[in-house]
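tool=predict chain=A
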Amino acid sequence: MRFSEIQGNEHVKKLLINSVKCNRISHGQLFLGPQGCGKLSFAIAYAQYIACQNRTDEDSCGICPSCQKFQKLIHPDLHFVYPVVTSTAFKKPVSDDYISKWREFVLTRNYHGIDLWYDFIGSENAQGAIFAQESQEIIRKLNLKTFESEYKVMIIWMAEKMNETAANKLLKMLEEPPEKTLFILISENEEQLLTTIRSRVQLIKFSPLSTDEIIEALKVEFSNTNDSLIENAAVLSGGNYLEACSILGELTSSGVDGNPDFDLFTTFMRESFSVHYDKIIKLSDEISKLGREKQKRFFEYCQRMLRECFLLNCVSNQLVRMTPQEMSFAQKFAPFIHNGNISQLTELFSEAGRNIERNAYGKLVFTDLALKVSAQLHIKKV
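tool=predict ok
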C-alpha cells in the first residue's frame, strides 16, 4: 500500500512522512477518524514507508523487496490485531486464526469497515471483539527481534473492541515498549478506549473525505455508472467512502435517486406521527430482523435526515444536502423539525443506537423509539 493510492487527508500524509524524515516516529500512535476515510490503509502505507529500502520524499518505492512483502501483507515485521468472533472452529479465537481471510479482505479495497469485515468472515449477528487471549500473542510477537526492518509494527484495527483484560495488558506494553516497536491503534470512537491508553499515544486525527474526493474515487472505480448517481451517492455519504459505495450500489440496482434507508425512514416517521400502533409494531419487527450494523447505519441516516430537515426549516436551504427524492419528502416533513424538538429527537436515535450496541431486544427498542418520536413530532415550534 502506498500513500499515492489513498484519497484524501493530505495533511496526515505529510505529517507521517515528515515523522520518518525527521526520525521522530512516536512508539504509540492513535489513528482516529470516522469510517470510510482510509485509516487502515494509511497505517499500512506508513509502515511500508518506514521499512522501504528506497523511499522518496513523497512515498515508498513500491518495488523493493520490503515493499513487495508489504503489498501482500506478509512482511515478517508487520503484525495485525483485529476483532474476531468465536465459532465452532475457534473457541478462543485470536487474529492469526483469521489471517488468510484478513489479508484477502484488506487487499481487495482501500477503505474498510467493521460491518464489511464481519460479513466477510460470516459472523452473522455475532459481535466481534479483541479477546483477552490476544494480549499474549501481542506480547509474544513484540518480544521477538526484528527480522528485516528497523521497526516492528503492530497495527491494532478497531482498538475500541478490545476487552478490558487485553486493553490493560496493552497498556503495560505502551508504558514500556520493546525497542524499535511501533504501535498504531486505529479507532472510530476514542471514548471507548481506556483513558490511560489514550494518554500514552500520539493522536493523529483523520477527516471525512470531501464530496469531490469521493466523486473522483467513485468515477475511477465505477467508470460506467451515471455521473448523477455518483454525485448523489457522494453527497449522501457524509464523507464515508464505504457508505458512498453502498448507496451507489442501491441507486444503481433500484434505478432511483434515493438512499437505501430512505423508504424505511419515511415509513417510520409517517407511522410514528400517525401513531398507528399495529403498523408501528409490524415495522419494528421488520427493522429488528436487520443485522445490527445495518440498524446502526439506519440510526445514523435518520439523524442526518433530521439535521437536514432542521436546516431546511429553520436555518437556510442553501446548507441542505439532499437528493431530489429526499427533498420532496423533506419539504412536507421539515416543518415538524424545529428548535423545540431537534435536540431531543437526535438524542433519541443516539440512545437507541447505544441500546442496540449493548444487544438490547431490537423489537422493543424500535417500538419504544417510535412512540417517543411521535410525542416529539407533535411538539409545536417554539
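Strands lie at 28-32, 78-81, 152-157, 181-187, 202-205. The mean pLDDT is 87.
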